[in-house]
């Protein structure tokens, strides 16, 4: 956090100007950018279909309908006003608009923040079919793991390149940090008489074993806790969708008492969901740090 990942993505996308140096995109690069604010930039006076139809694209009317269907907008749902869409529906529409653009370079800045599980899965499926290059800034390990083929870590003002997915990055980063510790220890020991070399070798092997055990215990604890938190989030998001659906039912809206109870349930559900979402982010962040997680 705070290393400049989002700033870098905004510089590459030309949404911000660099204070020094220049940014140049390659020949014939067509860039599209998605961030948490993309759903806020929708025209709330439009219907879903009007918003999609207004987007410049070579897609036919049928192809646009198919794209909306892939993001769960079908039948009369495409004529709903954007102003009455739920947060998840607005996010799905914003994602559909991004994928309509004829781009070959897609920049996603924290794309899964505020997305429900269903929308996240739909988005991931769509990205797997994307033929261009994708640059993703995210702390969401499980979203990243099935998508990415390269990790760029920004640490201490430097860039570290890992040619693999997120799991590969975690493994290699732990190895590199362990090797750095061993190298420092080796330099210190090399200054001592050679007869102490065997002692150093034993210490090194012991340190390697301890490091492997520590990393295994730490990651297992975090992954177990992540699984539990994600299961709870899934239940709460299901509850939220159910309550929001009831609040759109004209029959329910006639019963003010029931509406009041539903709003109370929704508020309590959202509070619990917010707490668990923060916990989830902390766990994901802890998984990428070389320090024990405190509970």
TrEMBL record:
An MF annotation (GO) of this entry: ATP hydrolysis activity
Record flagged with keyword Nucleotide-binding: yes
Entry keyword ATP-binding: yes
PROSITE patterns, per database record: ABC_TRANSPORTER_1
Sequence ranges assigned to domain ABC transporter in this UniProt record: 1-113
Keywords: ATP-binding, Nucleotide-binding
Coiled-coil ranges (or none): none
GO biological process terms on file: negative regulation of translational elongation
Annotated transmembrane regions: none
Matches recorded under Gene3D superfamilies: P-loop containing nucleotide triphosphate hydrolases, Valyl-tRNA synthetase, C-terminal domain
Annotated PANTHER family: ABC TRANSPORTER-RELATED PROTEIN, ENERGY-DEPENDENT TRANSLATIONAL THROTTLE PROTEIN ETTA
Name of the protein described by the UniProt record: ABC transporter domain-containing protein
């Amino acid at each position: 956090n705070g290393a400049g990942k989002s700033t870098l993505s905004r510089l590459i996308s030309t949404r911000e100007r660099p204070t020094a140096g220049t940014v140049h995109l390659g020949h014939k690069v067509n860039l599209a950018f998605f961030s948490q604010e993309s759903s806020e930039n929708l025209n709330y006076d439009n219907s879903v279909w009007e918003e999609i139809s207004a987007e410049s694209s070579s897609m036919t009317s049928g192809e646009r309908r198919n794209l909306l269907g892939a993001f769960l907008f079908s039948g009369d749902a495409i004529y709903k006003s954007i102003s009455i869409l739920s947060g998840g529906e607005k996010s799905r529409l914003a994602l559909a608009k991004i994928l309509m653009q004829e781009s070959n370079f897609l920049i996603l800045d924290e794309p899964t923040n505020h997305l429900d599980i269903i929308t996240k899965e739909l988005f991931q499926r769509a990205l797997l079919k994307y033929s261009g290059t994708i640059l993703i800034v995210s702390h969401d390990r499980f979203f990243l793991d099935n998508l990415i083929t390269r990790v760029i870590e920004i640490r201490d003002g430097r860039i570290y390149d890992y040619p693999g997915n997120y799991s590969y990055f975690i493994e290699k980063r732990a190895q590199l940090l362990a090797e750095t510790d061993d190298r420092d220890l080796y330099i210190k020991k090399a200054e001592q008489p050679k007869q102490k070399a065997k002692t150093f070798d034993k210490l090194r092997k012991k340190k390697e074993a301890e490091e492997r055990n520590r990393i295994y215990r730490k990651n297992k604890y975090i992954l177990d806790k992540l699984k539990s938190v994600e299961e709870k989030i899934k239940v709460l998001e299901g509850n939220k969708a159910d309550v929001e659906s009831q609040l759109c039912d004209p029959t329910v809206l006639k019963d003010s008492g029931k509406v009041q109870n539903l709003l109370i349930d929704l508020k309590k559900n959202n509070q619990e969901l917010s707490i668990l979402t923060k916990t989830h982010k902390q766990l994901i962040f802890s998984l990428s740090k070389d320090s024990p997680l405190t509970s």
